[in-house]
Design goal:
Aminopeptidase, Peptidase_M20/M20A_hydrolases, binds zinc ion, membrane, 4-stranded mixed β-sheet, Amidohydrolase, elongated, para-aminobenzoyl-glutamate hydrolase activity
Amino acid sequence: MVTTNWKEHLWLEVENRGHEIIRLAEQFQNTPETGFSEFQTSRMLADYFKHIPNLDVKWGIAVTGVAASLYTGRPGPRIAVTADLDGLENGHLCGHHMQISTMAATAMILANCGIMHWAGGEVRFLACPAEEYEESEYRKKLLLERRIMDWSGKLDFLQRGLFDDIDAVISVHLADDLPERRVIVGFQTEGFWLLRLICEYQGSRFRAWCQIHQHLQEWIRLVQADGQRRVVLSEKGGDGAIEIVLYIFETSYDEVIQERLIQQLRNSIRQVFFRFHIEKENGYAPFSQDSVLTDLASQQITRLLGKDAVMIRPVIQGATDLGNVARRIPTIQPLIGGTRGHTHSQSFHVVDKWMAYIFPVKLMIGMIIDILFGKYLLTNRKTVK
Ligand SMILES: [Zn+2]
């Protein structure tokens, strides 16, 4: 069967299984769990995978991660499909349930149709824990106990070698407030790093607050002066100490500049506080979508929805650990419409189930077929094994 026939055949199969795919997405939506605690989600996915023929499944990686592989045993391109397992405390407000159902349905359809008998290479499904940068105390504990190797799921999976030998990484994500049947591609996502500033004070807490804020505002103005960065601040603090977390979002990641900014913060705070300390965390790297994969995605989107459905955007706010993967391997994560409300807010929800749940499976399968059958060789980036 030629590539086009495979694609038409499998796209039809996705439509035929539409109700099943929606039900799967909604099942995952009903069990949101936070990072490295996605026990139920992980078990549901692993159980689903175990019923798929020829799929080699491992689970409990980095506490809750799942990895499954369709390997042909023959040379050819190696593709990783990624999904994030975690939700937020009050729901799947970043839409990761759709990533999981897309991954599960893609694996099931590819494994059952026999396409892997005709192809070479591998499709590896990596369901990663903890994409949201939260629960720092819990993560520190897991790190100390050596149950995780790094701060987030993909950083951990990178260290464990689960992305080794991979030629292309494909992922999907729901878009922020995009009700139409359109898809955003080609953009860059910010990275971030963060500073924890802990100031000890004596006397009036209110006075200490005012002093910190005055100096912080000056520093934030300085950081944002060239329009390359933005700072988001969160505060807590007990008796005698005020803790402020400064998230610095930017599309470049220059450690020399970062060190200079930290030094400037230190100098500024030193004017008013005798006892303070500043801790830096590396956060996530900025994420540049691969251009070859962007072309490939745009072609599927055009065929499935028409060319007006492809939306090119330069920069998207927010950061993901997929940025760290993209620094090593060509990676893409189109943002899928069919949603209303802003991600990470209570108002975020799906308004078009076909677009949000069924279309991404077609997009993913279309891209995988083109890569597996060499229509898109990734040779100029990395040798295809
Ligand atoms: Zn997300």
